[in-house]
Each structure stands twice: as structure tokens, then as C-alpha cells.
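Sequence in, structure out. First:
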Amino acid sequence: MNDYKKNSLSLSGAVGLGTGVMIGAGIFALLGQVAELAGVWFPYVFVIGAIISGFSAYSYIKVSDAYPSAGGIGMILKKAYGATTITGAAALMMAITMVISESLVARTFGSYTLQLFNVDSSSFWQPALGVGLLIVAYIINVSGNKVIGRSAQVMAGLKIAGIAVFAAGGLWAANIALSDLLPKATELQDHSIVQYVAALALTILAYKGFTTITNSGDEIKDPHKNVGRAIIISLVICAVLYFLVALTVGSSLSVAQIITAKDYSLAEAARPAFGNVGLYFTVGIAIIATISGVVASLFAVSRMTAMLTEMKLMPHSHLGMSGSVQKHMLIYVVVIAIILTILFDLSRIASIGAILYLVMDMIVHWGVLRHLRKDVHASGIVVISAILLDCTVLAAFLWVKVGNDPLVVIVSLAMIVVVFASEKWFLSRTE
């Protein structure tokens, strides 16, 4: 494909893209929702989520090392299942989860920005600001890989440093000792094992940004080595930052306060220790993180969907527009993300994204186990472990959501059915 430029992304640029998506969607958008399910143990749930994501990343790293491609997950699925309905449907589900993440981060951007003006985050301005961010991210993406790579590196450095300062300052202000790392008996709440496991679904969603690196494929310099390195480095960086920030927020706010301010919990946690200066600093870092997260996600999903059209696995129409397929996919993705940003709140966007991602992830692992394990020299034990972990977490998450928000489960299952049915119809017409 002429639109792809091999060796146009450095290792640091790839890490910037991965951490850009993870940090934007993870700690700012999901911390409050994880605390709601896991109570005072929520910092440790982020650590366990990183371990599970490490098992998941194994399959992607092994296949990407053997067959680096800008098609990323679409390529992995085609290698495993061929040009079939399951390949197209699973790839589309991944693309949908990426678009969902963009709308999740866009609304998070609105929530944090409004804290500067003391405006309720449930007002009209939250989705309006999110829509504005999506438009800006589109403009950056059409500027080319060099602009994207440089902006990703700069913003990733700023937000990683900023979040580290927030965590260190918060822990210092709280005067936390090693004995305070584990919750005290008086702090423990009545949460079931199912709720703790369900919380892992959201933390896995917080780490799924590593797939952005997979989708960059042979655009990364020396992809046979650097795709895997970039994924591992990104996961480690984010795991450490998530844990430290979660500890900081937990030391400043009670779980009830975190849940009340779950759409902007980091900004709320900065008030007691640092006052308005801390608030402005935290909101500034959140704005940088969410901007870079949306830019990086658009970069990945536009290339993935463009590759799927080249594979003849999804339809495409120019609709009278000039330019490449990638440019068209950028427009379509941004329009869909804008619609989701307007229609859904943060909690439901995150839940739908987690369900679709876990289903798609299990399909990828099963394909590697059944069809690619020998070719890519993957360990069957590791891949089977990834499948079992995903299945356990998904089952617990569905159980919790059926009890407190069945609409999320209904919408998610309906989307899966529609995606598979549509893909089967499209492929039958193409044949």
C-alpha cells in the first residue's frame, strides 16, 4: 500500500503511541469505575490487569515478530483463519473497540477540562469538548506520520513526567509508609470475588492500547525486534504509573469520594493536597494525555480498517471524496466516534468496549493456538492461559452487568451478532 511508509516510526515513537492510548483511556477515564467495583483494593487490580494483559500481548508479539504488518490484528486473524467471516468480524470488533476508546477518551477530556471552569461534567459542554478534540485529532492525523510520531513522543514524555510528579507529590503529601500500602481491616468493604474479577475487565481495557503498536507493524523500524520491545516497554511504564497514581488517589480520597467524582477523580484528588495549583496541573496533564490518546488511536484504527478493505474483508465507498482509502477511513471513524461521544456516558462506553475487546482477544488467541502456534514458535501453555484468563474475567464482568446494567450486555451482544451477520453477508456477496 502506497500510504504506508516502512521504517517511519522509531522505537520511542511506537512506545509513545502505545502509552498515548493506554494512559489516555486508562488512568483518567477508568480509575473511578475500577474503584467502584474493587473498593480499596483497586490499585492492585491495575497490577493484576497488567499481568493478564502481558499474557494477552504474547500472541500479538509472536505473530507480529514473524509477520510484521500495518494490518496488525487484521493480518494476525487472516493468517489464522483465512479470508473468512470470523476474520472479518473479529477485526471489525477490534476496530469498533478502538473507536469506542476514542469516544471514551474524548468525553474524559471534556470532564477534566470543565474542572477548570467549575462546570458540572454532566453538562452539554462535556460531549461538545469531546467532539472538538476528535476534530483536532483528525487534523493532526492527516498531517502525516512524522507529525504524528513527533507529537506522540512529545506528549507522551510530558504526560508520563506529569503523572509521575502527581503520584510522587501525592504520596509525599499523604506521608505514606510501607505499612500503609495494604488496606487496613477497618477500610475493607463488602465486595464479592466476582466484583473483583469483573474490575479486571476495565483494567484490561486500560492496557489494550498495546494493540496500537501491533497495528503500526512494519512502519516501525526493525519491526521483528521493536514491535515486541515497544509493547513490553509500554505495558511496564503504564503498570507502574497506574499503580502509583491509584495509590495517590486512594490516599487522598475515600472510595465513596472517588466513585462520586469517577469521571474526574485525579483532579478531585489533587485538591486536598495541592489546592488550585494541583488542580490546574492535573487537569493540564489530563488534557495532554487525552489528546495524545485520541491521536494515537485514530492513527492505528485508520490504518487497520484501510488494510481490511485491501484484504476485501470490509466494504468501502469513496462517497465522492478524493484521496486515499486511509483518509476516508479517518473521516468515517471520526464521525462514528463523534456520534458515540454525544450519545453515551463514560461508564457505558467503557463497559461495551471491554466486552467486545475480550471476545475479540479470545478469538485471536484461539487462532494462534489452533493454526499458528508452530509457525510463530508460540508456547501453547501461555496462549491457553491467556484464553482462560480472558474467559474468567469476561464471565464475571457479564454477571455483574446483568445485575446492575443489563442494557450494556444487550447492546454488546447485539453489536456482536450484527457484526458477524453483516460480515457473512458481505463476504457471500463478494464471492
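Second:
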Amino acid sequence: MMSFSEELPSPSDPRLSNSDFQEGEPSEVKVGSLKELIDIVTGRSVSKNLVEEEFGTFELLPFPFLALTGQAEMKLALLLALANPSIGGVLLIGPRGTGKTTAVRSLLDLLPNTEHSNCFYGCMPEDIESGGIGAVCPDCAKKYGEGKPLTRMERAALVELPLHSTLDDVIGSLDERAVLNKQIRIRRGLLAQAHKNILFADEVNLLSRDIINAILDAAAAGSYSVRRGSVSVSYQAHFTLIGSMNPEEGALRPQIMDRFGLKAIVRGLENSEERQRAWQSTQAYAANPRQFVQQYHEETRQICAEIQEIRRQIHNIHIPDEILQAGINLIQHLKIDSLRAEISLFEASRAYTAMDGRKTVELGDLQVVAPLALRLRRSVFMEKYFADQAKEDLAIKDTLDSISALVEPKE
């Protein structure tokens, strides 16, 4: 069993190199199960038939997740977040042009089924349960009274948060269509649309402070309220947050950084053969996206089904007491204050265990996910702050002791 000090395979690890590719070999990946995919992205089993990272723009048919190679850490983090939403989302950190956005959009075909509203306003049965019949639009109130369904089951959505979004776009605003009919209704914002879905904030470090605070508050509470004049509406907002950022363009506030469960470092492809294959796969996809995507349809469908099953069974994954203690010792040794560290570390280890086809978390599972779950959580500023505060407290105590020694006890 490895110790925590042993190095884990990284995207630049020679074991993940494709230098042994032979000319003329097929470029598609053949993955029979989610476990095989996890073996590949963690370096335990490296296929020789891999398509390299793709850097093209978003199309109606997203580039297949299974066609992405390299960037093992990024892909592992995204798979873990899909399998267990309790992890708390993912932040992808790296320079421009390294495929971060492409990778996130490629998750569309792996998203599990979830409950979606049939209504333009996004009315859900839970709105009635929490706020009464007045919490939904008149049409949905009528359907509810008639026993008709307000929702349907379909694939979860990837809700993108554009960089130019306003606060009204994010939380909701007065519906202009309703105003024209002399009614006052609030249009559902992106946060409400992201309920039970994935919210993707590209270049999250460039978003305004108001928008970031709205996202953090909604993510922490699982709901939020909007008031416009005399109208007040509350929305559910349980979503998986995925963000990306280029550190060259600015830092992210520590408060925001701590909210992401996993942080994946995304570097450019260093091997020249890999970069050539990346270009070739981009060309093949651009020439015929439908044909390219179809090559991965069956494997993608199977992995999507496995992710959905893992979501149903994730709470049955057992973490022994000795593994819990090992994780806590690691966090304390690193001097991490945030209790979110334990949540992300243990929930990620449960997801990894489930994807590996096991029921009990082992120390090796912690070793795999620890860099993703614990990096960028330490604060040099806070360490110095607490150290300075301890010195001040000691000075106060020493002074009090000196004064007490000069005061003669009364008889």
C-alpha cells in the first residue's frame, strides 16, 4: 500500500505517454465500462488507441468525452463530480487553449436523467410543497389540481453562465411578457434553471463580485429568493458547480476557491505526437461531427448508465474508521481549516471506490483523490495571522502574570 508521500500519476507522467503509438493505428478509444475508463485516466491501464485532446469550438454535437485523452486529472475530476454531486463541484485551472471548456461540454452525453419542469416558468411540484399553490403559474396550478404531471424525466442539462451575464440574468427578473398582460411574474434565472443540473461558469475569476456572491449563497443554502416590488419568489438551487479559470487573467477569492470540491490543474500537451493527434482529431470532428460522435455512442451510453447507477448507490459505499482517521490526520497535517476539505476528500473517495467496482474505501482511494480535494485550501495569510495572534495572546498572558506577581495577596 502506497503512502501519502508517494507521487501519483499526472497527465505528464511517462506512463501516460502515447509515444509508443504506431502509425496507422485506429484513433478511437474502446472502453467497455466506467471502471476501464477510470483505469485509463488514473494511469493503471493505458490504451494504445486514444484520441488526443480536442481544442475546437462548441458545436451542437459536443466532442465526445471518450475521445479526449491526456489531461487525466481533469477527466477524473469531472467523472467524480458526475458520479457524486455531494463532492461540491470542480474548478479547472490552466492556461487558455488547453481544452477546459471542451471537456466540460463533452459531459452532455454522460449526464444522468433528472426531473425537469414542463413549464416556461420552470414550475416544479416542490414549489407547491414549499410555497403553496400560489408559488406556481396559473397553468401549472390548474394542471396540479387536475392531477396532471408538471415535470418529465430527461437528461440533466449543462447550464452555462456567460461572462457578460447580469445579476438579473443569474437570479431572475420581472417577466416582460407577463408585464404586457398587466401581470407581475418573475422570470426564472440561471441559478433556478441549474437546479438538479450542472452550472458551468467559464472564466469564473472574471465574474463580478455580485454574481459570484449570488452563486455562492445559492449553492450553500440550496435555494434563494428574489423580490421585485410586491412579488417575492423562492427557488430551489441544488446544482453541481463547474468552473474554469486562467490564472494569468486574475486570481480567485479564497472564499470562492474553497467552495469548489475538487481543483484540477490543466496543462498543455507536451508531447509533439500528442499535439499532432489533437489536431488530427479536431479535423476529423470538424469534417463530420455526427460520424465522429457516433463512433463513441455505445460506450458513452453504457458509461452514462453506470454513472446513474452509482448515484443511486453512492451512500452505500462504506468508509472504515481507520480511513476516516487517516484522511483527517492528512488534513490536519496540511493545516487546512475549512471543514469542506473532509467533505470533498471523503465524498470523492467514495465516488472513486464506486467507479472502481468496490463497496469499501481503501487508503489507496484517498491517495488518488487527495490532490484534487485538498490542493489550494491552505492559506499562508491565515497561518501567519494565527501565529501573530498566538504571540499577542502570549504577550498578554505574560504581562498579566507579571502584574499578578507584584500584587501582594490580601490577608
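Remark: The chain has two domains: 14-110+247-374, 113-196+220-231.
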